[in-house]
Each structure stands twice: as C-alpha cells, then as structure tokens.
C-alpha cells in the first residue's frame, strides 16, 4: 500500500473518531464563536476609526468651503476684509490653522483582521504650515487598560487561542494510542509510525485550518470586503499561507513532544509550558532585553529639548528678522492688514524656521533611536514564532509598524510641500486667491511597495517554516526509538 | 516460516532473551510456556519489530525483521493478551480500519461481518461501540483482525485470556484450522491445557532462555504441569534476570528435571 493511501486511510479514520466523539462539532463551535466575535471586535474598531476620519474630513471640507465662500464674497465686494486671523487671503493663518489638512491612512481590506499598531498610531494627522512637532507629537489617547489586555481580534484568536486548541487536540496524539494499547494493534500492519502520526496530525491540521480559514472568508464577505481585487487576493493568499504554517508549527511541536514517549499528562504539561514560553515569556524577554540594550528614548526629554530650541530661536528673533530683512530687501510689508500684524507674523515664521532645523535634528535623533530599537526587535522576533506570526498578520492587515513608518515619511513630505506652498506667500506677504485654493497640496497615501511587503511577509513565513523543519527532523529522528509496547 | 537465530535482547544490560534459536514451520503451532518475565513476550515483540534485537536475527518467511520490518508485517498477524480497540467506534469499524491498513484495500462489509461471526462475535454486537464490549468481545474482534489479514504467520500472546470456555474452545478449533491451512503459529501462553490441546511443539522458557522444547508426543509422557511449576518457582526464587554473559552459568541452577533438556538444547547449538 502506498504511503499516500495509508495517510488517506488514517486521515479518514481520524475523521470517524472525531465524529464519533463529536469533537469536530465542538472544534467548529469554538472556532466559529471565536472568529466571529473577533471580527465583530475588529470591525467595530475600524468603524470607530473610520467614523473619526470621516468626521475630520467632513470638518475639513466644511471649513475649506467656508473659507472659499468668504473669499468669494470679499472678491465680489460683498464682505469687508476681516481681521488678519479670520482673513481667508492671509496665507499664514490659512496655512497654519484654517486650511490645515488631514493626512489620512486608509485601512486595507484586511484591517479588521488585526488591530496591530493601530491602537497606538492615529489613522490621520492634521498637517499645517507650523513646525513638525505641532502635529507629530499629537497622539490619540487609548485606554491604557485596553493596551495592557490587548484586543480580541482575529490575530489574537490565531496567535493565542488557536495554539491552545491545537494543543488540546494533539497533546496525546501518540501517547494516547500507546496508553490505550491501540498502537500495538496498528503497528502490526505495514504502516510506518511516522505515517500514522502524520495522518493523525494531518487531519487536525485540515480541520483547524479549514474551519478557521472558512470562517474568516465568510466574515470578510459579511463585513463587505471586496475579495475580487488583486490586493485583497494577495493579502488573502498570504493570510492563508501564514495560518497554515502557524498551525503546522504547533502540530509539529506537538509531534516533537509526543515522540519523547512521555505520558499524556506530561505531554500536556510540556506543551502548555511551551505555549507560555513562546507566547508570554519570550516576548517579555525580548522586550526587556531590547529596552536594556536600546532604551526607548524619553519623549519628555525630547519635548524639553524642542522647547529649549524654540526658546533659543525666540531669544534670537530680533537678529533673525534683521538678517532676513537685510537678505531680502524686496520683501517689504504690503498693506494686507495692519502693518504690525504682518511684521509679527513674519517674525513668527522666521523664528519658526530658525527653530525648525534644530527641532528636526532632535526629532530625527529620537526617530533614529526608535528605528534602531525596532531593527533589533525585528531580528529577535524570530526567537518566537508567535511574534513572527503577530507581526506578519499585522503586515497583512496593514496595521504594522512599517506601514505607520511609511505614513510618517509621507506626512513629512506632505508637510514640506505644505510649507513650501504657504510660507513663501507669508514671507512675501502675498494674499491667497481662489485660484490658490484650488491648488492647495492634497495628501494621498501611497502604501509601501508590494515587493517590500511581500519580502517582509516572506521572511515571516520563513520564520515559521524553519522551526517547522527543525521540529519535523527532530521528530523523525526520535520516532525511530518510540516504544510500541509499554 | 518463523525463525530466531541467536536472538538476544538486553535492556540496559539486563538480558531478557538470550541466544534464542527457534524455528516454527508452516502448519505448526509452537507454544511458548514460561513464567512472567521468562522472555515469551520479548520473543514475540522481536518478531513484530516492536523492539530491536541486541544480537542475532529474527526471520519471517526468510526476511530479516530488523532489516525489512514493513515487508515482514505483511506476512504476520498478532493477537495480544488484551486487544485494545478504539472505544468510540464499533467492532465493525475497528475491523474495517485495521483490515484496510493490513491489506491496503477495503474488504466488503459482509466479509467483515462473516469474519466477526467466525471469531464468535454476534452480528448485532458488531455494530455497537467497542466501549460497551467485554474483554472477550474485544478479543474476538482481535481474532477477526488477525484472520482478515490471511497472514502466513500468527503471533499470539495469551490469546485466550478473557475468553469464556466456549469461546476458548472455538478459538482452539480456529487454530487447528489455521494450522491446517499452513499458517505458522507462535503462541505465548500460561494455558497449559491449551498448549497440550493445540500445540505441535512446546518450548519452555526461563529467564530469557529456551530451556526445553518438546513435541506433542513428548507431552504425552511428561508431566508438563509439574515441570512448568518447577520452572516458575525457580524464577520466583531467582531474583533479577541475568546480565549478559551470566545466562549460561545460571542454567546450572535449574531443577534436576530440566537439566537434560538444557543439555539437549546446548548440543543442538
């Protein structure tokens, strides 16, 4: 009999055993409930975020339209120019306050599957012509209790709960056969022991994978995900591959523990211990190790340094203005509003620009330290398949750190573009026109290159496949010495 | 069909089976008698490749068990002392699974039911969960599993343990039929009467050594039960099994009734 036929027979027999004990029903019940609830949670999180984004964008749109209307009435002579602060032609106040624009990170089609870093990073940033610190340090405050507990999303179900289910189904996959004596009856037939364990674990893999993957697809469709786009299909493909690899990792781990020929109780203890190590101890250890080696830079210290830089720039403001007027005699005040307002605004912008260089250096140093820490975390994540899986699922969902770094880089570029549009007009004291309003810079998020995301996901997949291969080889080696009889 | 050549098994230096030389031909039933720990089950486990020999070889149909364990398992069937089955499935489902693993293809249900009936299991019981079976009923399914394989050699380890007298009698008849069909049967048993009834030859083991082999004709003249009890009492008094190399010397401590038999075996080597 060919090995594949044995595998098929053992696979089918396992299905009969599960049916007889109604195990398949209970597994399905658990997975349907867990995946369904996770999707409800994930989608409600996305809805909450998107409601905030929608409100912000609506507010921006209304605000901009009011400015345009006001300007049109002024141009038509129906409305007298207001104070500088309210004047829609004033490039400083418009660029710095009234027309400040939201840079929005759109959710991916799979955003509901992993909340990831989205509870720490807001999905939008209000960009103005002010310095970067005016928006870069603004973050939404999330309930610290929620951050501590974590979110019950699909990634949580897969990374944390699925291994427990797999352990419950496979901790005694061989030891029970040994203990109840059926192994001896089976092994009098020309079936290699590895085929027996592969068939039994293969059925468990198929059961858990098909139920989790099937329920996920149903939930994705239920929340209105368009799975016909190439982007969605690629994400779905990666998600399925990662899920399969993660399930296989835990099953090969169960196999490796089973071939040690301990009792079922010992196997359960060992696997539970390994679950704790892989999911709790190792991530904590990595976090502590990284924080000791590369401590998180102090935001308080950074803010203090920024304020000191602003104070220095303020103290040097007279000299800065004098140097500017000397270098740009052509830029004299035009009768925009009161001359004092123009001088004050120009002074403010010049001081702002003088401080910007020092502040950007401070913030760049902070970012470099964070990036260094992140690089170390990226390397150490391979110590725990659970971290690898969580990171990979975040990447599929578009809620990983790298996507927020991309957002940050693009917001920086947009900020520079925004300043380049408004600040020359401020310094030249050039009034804004309706034509200018049509050409305000707009932010359009461009995600990381597909190849970059794919490479990251591929490294995650390899981070699961390598331990699977090691555990497989270990099991294959140890299984030769497995005692068939007591 | 079954052949042991200098077959030895030691566990951590403790000899469980010492240089066993044995041949069981087709159409022959060889009964291994001996006290607990004498090496009977070790012998069977070696033929099944459940354990690997420390020295020597076990051959089934001329094939070395250690070299080609899977090929060997195509030729042998096994009934343990207690046949353990999957309790949540019926006897028929258990038989179907093990038969498919043995043969590489499924046998029709009516054939399986016929096998179970031959083994003595009622048809209505065949469809019930094994969890409700008595030990004897499980044993009958085990017999059906072994019969379904149509093996050339049959290894039995206390096969009638747990069977009621009628079932045991039917089992004896079944063994006679298999013998007539040319199956080589090696049976480890404590059941002296069964051995007398069905055995072609009987071997007595003590501390890992086959100390005596007799034909059924010899059995008629010897007081098998007395000899066996002598050996048992010797084992009980003897303490730990011998370490490698000690076994030859220890045979000298055998009861006087067995000395000749041991000498005969040494000559045969």
Automatic annotation (TrEMBL), chain A:
Keywords: Membrane, Transmembrane, Transmembrane helix. Pfam families: DUF3526 (PF12040). The chain crosses the membrane at residues 23-40, 154-174, 180-198, 205-224, 236-261, 273-294, 457-474. It comes from the Bacteria. Signal peptide: none annotated. PANTHER family: ABC TRANSPORTER PERMEASE, ABC-2 TYPE TRANSPORT SYSTEM PERMEASE PROTEIN. This is ABC-2 type transport system permease protein. It comes from Methylobacter tundripaludum.
From TrEMBL, chain B:
The keyword Nucleotide-binding applies. One of its GO terms (molecular function) is ATP hydrolysis activity. InterPro entries: AAA+_ATPase (IPR003593), ABC_transporter-like_ATP-bd (IPR003439), ABC_transporter-like_CS (IPR017871), ABC_Transporter_VariousFunc (IPR051782), P-loop_NTPase (IPR027417). Residues 239-269 are annotated as: Disordered. Keywords: ATP-binding, Nucleotide-binding, Transport. Pfam families: ABC_tran (PF00005). PROSITE patterns: ABC_TRANSPORTER_1, ABC_TRANSPORTER_2. SUPFAM superfamilies: P-loop containing nucleoside triphosphate hydrolases. Residues 2-232 form the ABC transporter domain. It comes from the Bacteria. The keyword NADP does not apply. PANTHER family: ABC TRANSPORTER ATP-BINDING PROTEIN ALBC-RELATED. This is ABC-2 type transport system ATP-binding protein. The lineage of its organism: Bacteria, Pseudomonadati, Pseudomonadota, Gammaproteobacteria, Methylococcales.
